[in-house]
């Protein structure tokens, strides 16, 4: 049975953004509510368990599903083969996770981790069962169904977790929340596709797609290490409590990256593709997207870094205050990440596929070495280690890209001066504001005052710097207008 495509590229892109944005907002709200009832240790244990699930999804399930993406016209037999392979892999990995839970809990020096891992192993089975269905919906451009599935499963799973947390279930409330959400996601996607797979084990298909599966799996390992290796290292060196605090700091700062930078990266793909081998067009598109990304993301990350303490206290509660210093370090990290990810897209567009891989490996090795040396300084030391690895590797990537595009310092300055100078002055202005306000001031009023200062100061500085640069390079004026339109659409 072949599904009818439910929409075009424009509709699919819109629903994909809605899906991503809704998941981020709902997850953040549910996390903020649960943080009021549960201790950081509970979230730390779940974070460690979730790392194992993310690994299976990125490295195993996504790799097995790759033939559907590569095939011009996937058949029901191919979908069933993917379903069978993912299901068998899911059962095997779930069993491995369940029976190795005791050993892993010893490795992380966290006895309570055993029951969390065993409970979360059920989700691995659900993720294996659902992967072929998800690939079928994506292949047929049915992004609206995926968005509805995500919103309902995350909302209901979150509601279940909140109810159990209020009844004193502790960390197991988070486990039940995750298992409920993954089970409901499977049920909804089966209903939406109206497709029942068969058991298909085909060695010819395995041999045909093995190279693609292996390549995607290896890429998934590197992607997992660069994206989640920091949480894994914090868990190994500092334990569940610090992991829970780091998870909060990472959620707060990554929200800006996921909403703004990821949206701009989706815009970058067609821009770079349309430019082809035209270096002038690639250069102009890159500078515009880079300027808009900085314009939108930099002030928000500065605001989070300076007002981390009142923000954490007001939203999550005073027990999470030890996470505030890490937010400042991670704000720098995610600002650099937004640029690095954009650079990677451009490298791939230019056929320089090895550069992002080599840079990612170097960054991973450096981050691990720094974290191993500075974990004695606690969570802040670990956060600064990850930030330091980015700061040391980032110039290498940027220099290679600038040479490939023919970019010079003046061009980069024209693109980044208004948001960069505006963010620095905003940082200093908010810091001065905090010094002048009494320490016992109400957190909500303090945050409100900071928002007012940011809304007045940042656009004023950007307008002044941008106006001066416009006299030399009028393209930044176009960038500013485009950025304002994007920010208004995000707010709506």
Automatic annotation (TrEMBL):
InterPro entries, A to Z: Poly_Biosynth_Transport
Transmembrane stretches, start-end: 21-39, 45-66, 78-104, 116-134, 146-165, 171-191, 289-308, 320-336, 357-377, 383-401, 413-438, 444-467
Subcellular location(s) per record: Cell membrane
Read off the Pfam families from this record. Answer: Polysacc_synt_3
Q: Does the keyword Signal feature in the UniProt annotation?
A: no
Top-level taxonomic group: Bacteria
Instruction: Provide the membrane topology annotation.
Output: Multi-pass membrane protein
Q: Does the keyword Glycosyltransferase apply?
A: no
Assign the protein's first listed, main location to one coarse class: membrane
Which cellular components does GO assign to this protein? plasma membrane
Q: Which UniProt keywords apply?
A: Cell membrane, Membrane, Transmembrane, Transmembrane helix
Can you tell me which family this protein belongs to?
Belongs to the polysaccharide synthase family.
Q: What is this protein called?
A: O-antigen/teichoic acid export membrane protein
Q: Which organism is it from?
A: Glaciimonas immobilis
């Amino acid at each position: 049975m072949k599904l009818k495509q439910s929409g075009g590229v424009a509709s699919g892109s819109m629903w994909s953004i809605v899906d991503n944005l809704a998941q981020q907002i709902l997850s953040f709200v549910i996390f903020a509510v649960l943080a009021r009832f549960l201790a950081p240790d509970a979230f730390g244990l779940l974070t460690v368990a979730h790392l194992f699930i993310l690994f299976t999804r990125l490295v195993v399930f996504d790799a097995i599903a790759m033939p559907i993406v590569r095939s011009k016209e996937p058949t029901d037999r191919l979908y069933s083969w993917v379903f069978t392979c993912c299901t068998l892999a899911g059962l095997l990995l779930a069993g491995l996770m369940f029976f190795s839970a005791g050993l892993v809990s010893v490795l992380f020096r966290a006895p309570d981790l055993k029951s969390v891992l065993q409970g979360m192993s059920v989700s691995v089975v659900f993720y294996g069962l659902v992967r072929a269905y998800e690939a079928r919906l994506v292949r047929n451009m049915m992004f609206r169904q995926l968005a509805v599935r995500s919103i309902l499963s995350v909302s209901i799973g979150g509601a279940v977790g909140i109810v159990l947390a209020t009844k004193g279930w502790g960390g197991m409330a988070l486990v039940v929340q995750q298992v409920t959400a993954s089970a409901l996601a499977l049920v909804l996607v089966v209903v939406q596709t109206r497709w029942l797979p068969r058991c298909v084990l085909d060695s010819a298909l395995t041999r045909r797609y093995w190279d693609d599966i292996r390549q995607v799996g290896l890429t998934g390992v590197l992607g997992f290490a660069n994206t989640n290796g920091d949480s894994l290292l914090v868990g190994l060196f500092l334990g569940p409590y610090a992991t829970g605090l780091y998870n909060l700091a990472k959620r707060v700062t990554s929200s800006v990256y996921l909403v703004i930078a990821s949206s701009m990266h989706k815009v970058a793909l067609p821009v770079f593709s349309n430019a082809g081998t035209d270096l002038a067009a690639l250069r102009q598109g890159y500078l515009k997207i880079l300027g808009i990304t900085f314009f939108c993301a930099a002030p928000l990350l500065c605001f989070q870094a300076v007002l981390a303490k009142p923000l954490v206290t007001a939203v999550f509660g005073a027990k999470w205050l030890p996470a505030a210093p890490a937010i400042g370090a991670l704000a720098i990290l995610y600002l650099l990440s937004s640029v690095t990810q954009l650079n990677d897209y451009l490298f791939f567009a230019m056929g320089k596929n090895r550069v992002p891989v080599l840079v990612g490996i170097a960054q991973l090795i450096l981050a691990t070495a720094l974290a191993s040396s500075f974990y004695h300084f606690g969570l802040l030391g670990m956060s600064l280690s990850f930030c330091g690895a980015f700061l040391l590797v980032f110039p290498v990537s940027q220099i290679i890209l600038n040479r490939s595009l023919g970019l010079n310092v003046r061009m980069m300055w024209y693109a980044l001066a208004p948001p960069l100078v505006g963010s620095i002055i905003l940082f200093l202005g908010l810091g001065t504001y905090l010094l002048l306000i009494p320490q016992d001031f109400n957190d909500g009023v303090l945050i409100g005052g900071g928002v007012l200062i940011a809304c007045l100061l940042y656009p004023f500085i950007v307008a002044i710097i941008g106006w001066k640069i416009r006299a030399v390079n009028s393209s930044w004026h176009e960038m500013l207008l485009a950025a304002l339109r994007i920010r208004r659409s995000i707010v709506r």
